[in-house]
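INFO batch 0412 | record 1 of 1 | parsing
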Amino acid sequence: MIKKYCSTLTLNYERTLLYMLQQVEYDIPQYLKWLHRVKDFRTVARRGQMVPTLKVQLLFLCLALFVLVYTGLIFWVAMSVNTILSYGLAIVAILCLPLLAPFVLIAPLTIGRYVVQKPLEWNTINMAKQYIKGHGGYKIAIVGSYGKTSAKEVLRTVLSGGRKVAATPGNINQALGLARFIMSTKGNEDILIFELGEYRPGDIAKMCEFVDPDAGFITGINDAHLESFKTTQNILDDIFSLKDYLKNQPLYLNSDNEVLAREDDEHTTMYSEDGTENNVVTNVKIGAFDTTFSLGKFKVDSGLLGRHNIGIVSAAVELAQKMGLSDGEIRAGLKELRPFEHRMQPYDLNGATIIDDTYNGNLDGVRAGLRLLDELHASRRIYVTPGLVEQGDKTEVNHRAIGQLLLGKVDEVVLMRNSVTGYIADELARAGFAGKLTMVDDPLGFYENLDKFVAVGDIVLMQNDWTDNYA
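INFO prediction complete | emitting tokens
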């Protein structure tokens, strides 16, 4: 505690607080969790720096005004009483000021959110609800613990071969983001694709009521967001709110996922790396820059990496056929499949192949990435990770599982040192890992100098990200 307090007396302390608010996107509960976790404010900003936006500048101004008023009031009271005790208490009060600063920033955020921002958000969401009711497009909802954004992009690309399609941008998957997307559509789209995110129990049910989907995809279920949901069953119940809402309307399930494989019934279409019932996958060839396979009558030459992408491509083709797209239109869509940013995205670096999968953040993604790495020829296979976040009471178990998964598949492991990487390192040591293990204390420096770390013929898989709000 003494070290933590002393670190509040540095010149960059206020910048660190503002930086962290930006990192958690001004989510106050997440900010308070970080305040509880942090041990030294001097070592927080290792992956980025505060961006001086207007919002940040206004918050800094509020903090500065509070400091002036607070210190002025303390000294005025002390001088008015004019005793040794009053001056002693004034000094104690001033020393407490750094401890108050993190909470002072919450006040203007809370006032701004409920007085200004919330009414505007409610207005936008209500307008979007009315607008979406009149939109004639076929609406597809995608849910799951992982793989939502990739599934969305595959569907958008394949269906765009013969239909006018709009999809939520990036990883936007909450109500306000969905509302803004809806209001940005032109009204003449044939298909609208929504990615729905689950962060708290009840989220999926509410968003289904909002967008009123005609079809749905469930990409997989695992321990992501276990910190918020407490149990895997709670996650399952929330995600399957989509099935409850759709009733007998089309629902596609990824049977490569162990949990979903048990949910097959007459109202679902199962898809996997073996294809679908109507489109069977054969002749799979895995490369560092592409994946090729036959899918029924279609020859797929895709820029997507890894067998785990085959299933959703199969499902997209199945849906396209049901929606009446011609073979030519489907082929046109398939030709446009490319890797998505930070999701198994390959690039060449001085003769080495770098696979950027830093947007991945779950154990199933680790399995898929290591399976890909194991299938590729390389002079050295290097795996880079900071570990996984929000694993709840399965944090140790899941990170020891990563250590086990790495055995026999990689020549070198690079861990970005934090509170969970010790579990991976310990499991590697316990199991007698024969490769090289490197612990990195400066992640940003490592990534910026990656070209000095690799050699011709290396394949480097970089998985997951660990933002500075996690210790």
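INFO post-check: The domain at 135-334 is CATH 3.40.1190.10 (UDP-N-acetylmuramoyl-L-alanine:D-glutamate ligase).
INFO record closed
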